[in-house]
Amino acid sequence: MIPFFAEELSNINVLRATIATESACDAAECLEIKDSVLVLKDQVVADLKSIDIAVSTQNLVVAQPNDPSSPQPDNDDALIPWEVKLSLLKPPASLRSQQNDVKEWWTSKLLLQQSLEKQMRCQHCAQGLLDSAIKYKIKDLPSEHWYELVECWICHETKPEEHQARMKPILARPHVLLVGTTYFLIHPENIVKGSLQVDPVVSKRANWDRGTLTKWIAVNCSKCENAVGEGQYCMEDGEMQLLAVKLFKYCIDLAPNPSEQPVFTDFLVSDLVNTAKIHATHRFLIQGRQSQRIYALIWLFNWDTHIVHNDGYREKSDHTLVRERVMKVIYLDCTVTDAHVEKYVALWSNDKSTDHLIYPDTYCQQLVDTLNLSTLVLPPFMRKINHPAMVFTKNFSIGFIRRSG
């Protein structure tokens, strides 16, 4: 098995690949393309036809990386990398016009197709959270950034104050399920009594003498104490009163089970793309809600691309050739703190163009593990960014987040 990794460059219709061979093998002389199959000395490297990729037999370019960080063989058994450039005969399936489109999960349309009895359960222990005996009205919420968008629009009006007076926050209503991109907004009246509890760590940090009159505070499942969402609270006569609940889609299960079962990274992709479009930012700090710890710094490098690999740079794999639609990111794992991490967390935190995305700590750690694992599909010399021009991402890693749809 010859390790193989490639990325489709849709803008120039090229498949840029990397393989690794024994030091005695001159890939520039031996590598061939036969009917979209990459062959080295009669050994199949990658059957691209099997994953619906057609490449030209012309314009094949094979060369060793012109990179001082790429490994140099120190013995005859060592593998050396080769870069391969292949011309695509047809453009990648994902058009640039579709790159900003993000699949929305568990919309009002899907819920309306479900049976009349609806239930939302904790993903970890299956405790019911929503009163399923009620017939609900189901409506989609606007974009998370609707308020900012409207403010930008009305600033051009002759009397913007008239519009501003009518701009009020969207409130939870009894017997109405309001469906957001990553959560359901529910009135407390429709939450199963005793199924939720305030997160004690986050609650203790709330300062009711400062800021807004209402605060969003993390809530957990009362049975297993895992995070399930946020509650909007106000203080009345020294007691916290619950006004609304957001149940995060990635923390719950729906019953009956829908055909589509998204995972946390599906909702992360929505947050990354939507925030990038509205705020014109590509840098994000991923922060834990309970611990307030920074788990990762993420630079959104390519919103939508395809990679092809056989997982050849990892030993424990079946090495099947796969093609995946992904989001390419440059990231820094901040879970192990050192001077380098502290420097870049401070640098990014003080940069006004950087956005904070806050999630339950469990999912932040899950994201870091996913990114670290994705880096391993790359050849070792391509896993880190060390270019002197990339000041904001020195010694960051390259990673991938899968995109659905």
UniProtKB/TrEMBL annotation:
Taxonomic superkingdom: Eukaryota
InterPro entries named among the record's database cross-references: UBQ-conj_enz_E2-bd_prot
Cellular component terms (Gene Ontology): cytosol; nucleus; ubiquitin ligase complex
GO BP terms in the entry: proteasome-mediated ubiquitin-dependent protein catabolic process; protein autoubiquitination; protein monoubiquitination; protein polyubiquitination
GO molecular function, one term: ubiquitin protein ligase activity
Pfam families hit by this protein: HECT_2
PANTHER family in the record: E3 UBIQUITIN-PROTEIN LIGASE E3D, E3 UBIQUITIN-PROTEIN LIGASE E3D FAMILY MEMBER
Name this protein carries in UniProt: E3 ubiquitin-protein ligase E3D
